[in-house]
Fold:
Amino acid sequence: MLLLAAGCATAQTRLNPGSCDAVPQPAFCGAVRGARAEGWPAQSRSEVMARHGMVVTSQPLAAQAGLQILMRGGNAIDAAVATAGVLNVVEPMMVGVGGDLFAVIYVAKEKKVYVLNASGTAPSGATLARFNALGYHWNPKNWGPTSGMPLGGILPVTVPGAAWGWQAVLKRFGKLTFKEVLEPAVQYAEHGFPVSERIAHDWHLPNALPLEKCCTEPDPDSVKTWYVNGQPPAAGQLFKNVELAKTFRLLQAKGGEAFYTGEIAQAIVAKSRALGGSMTLEDLAQYKGEWVEPAHIQYHGFDILELPPPSQSWAAEEMLNILQTCLPQWAPGESLASLGPKNPKYWHLLVEAKKLAYADLYQFNADPDFATVPLQKLLSQPYAASLCGKVDPLHASTPAAPGNFPLPGDTIVLSTADAEGNMVSWVNSNFAEFGSGITVPGYGFILHNRGALFTLDPKSPNVIEPHKRPFNTLAAGFVMQGGAPLTTVTLMGGDMQAQGHAQWLIDVVDLGANVQAAADMARFRHGQIANVLNLETPLYDLVGAQLAAMGHTVKSVSGADVGGVQAIMIVDGTYRSGSDFRKDGEAVGW
Structure:
């Protein structure tokens, strides 16, 4: 019997599926991919179609948990919380109850879209003066990778909003309770699950820097919670988190009060104080998310709805608006479809539109409760028309110096839909992988580090202030057509999110791709600060040389750099879904 080996494919070796990251590589790594029998040859799999309900996300166990909730009588909102809870267990570096949440929810009986902002606010002690006194300063000459804010450790930790948001959506639109929807997560946390491949690849704690900047070792509570014998779990290894199960049991029994005023709150504050943080019990007790109005444009007759500030999501709309307004000037007689993705000019114009949109994003985006963001102007067609002359249709531009803060980060996205016609576009995150790197002892969850996206520039609308929400990379969207729901829009991954939303929407609206094909199509990720155009390797091979000749600084990257799509579309009463092959996930329906 021939068994798959970790190092090389030989007979009589232990059953351990091989990885092409191994040295030496298994023999199968020299194989080539097979060909599809129909459709676009490069498509990874067919769309998943179902009539009664659908769940799609980046990990199969989480998707199945949401589907089970639907099949037991829950709705799309219940399924979203259940899926997010399981993702906290199985993809903990990306998402958790100690992070942020945004959601776009279409409520079928009201024919209305609701938007939730459950992102965290800065602690009451998070003042510019305090950071300056601790040695953190904004340097106008160093507008590169930092804003002066530390990325890890306790200082960039803001009040977690996810737990509040989970409860808020259940109370307003759900059918079930915390007791019911968190039970799948509790079971996986208590009894364990096998770690999947891509997630194992991402499972590495940061070297969190504490207040005194003395140490390069990860937080001991994090090592204890997330590692097995001091090492990240390998693909296929069973992993348990009984302390996280305890947290979920408290939420099941006492709701969000357990997190914001009960013993979990006390544990968060105790950990923060031990590391020199300023979060108080009052900061947690007073936290509230917000129900807000979506940012909105029309694009080729479709109503595009995205998250408003402080999310970056609305920049996707400005990018699309610039393209539809300026394309007749940049490429007379052409459309994006007629140019097509084999043409380097197609990619050049997308990138140039992105640069313009992100320049405004970095200049203006901030918490609208603390600063005025001129969103209506920025998303108007007259304003888009005023930008057309800034683009050379044949040569790359150099973007202006952006707002001074880093935009790394990872997260999860998920979409759900139910038999009533409700649909949910959901984004939930720790910000960086394993967030701040700090785990709340005894409760098994990471504190996010979203405050790293504040700036210490005193003139910026995004300067750090107590109780303020920072600029937020999280993005979620929705598309309506003729007053009816069409599709969720989700794509995770730091500053990739808004530019990724725009690319996916162009694939669907302009190029006519189905949901799965649009998820599979090659993407770019342009870094505004370094002005580097990252192209997935097949795209680099196709147009990289021509784009370099146009003045772009191009780089070939893997799919790990361009995020992951998890989307659901409704066509003639049937749900159609696509799950990005770059992740471990799947779409499931019934």
In short: The longest strand covers residues 423-431.
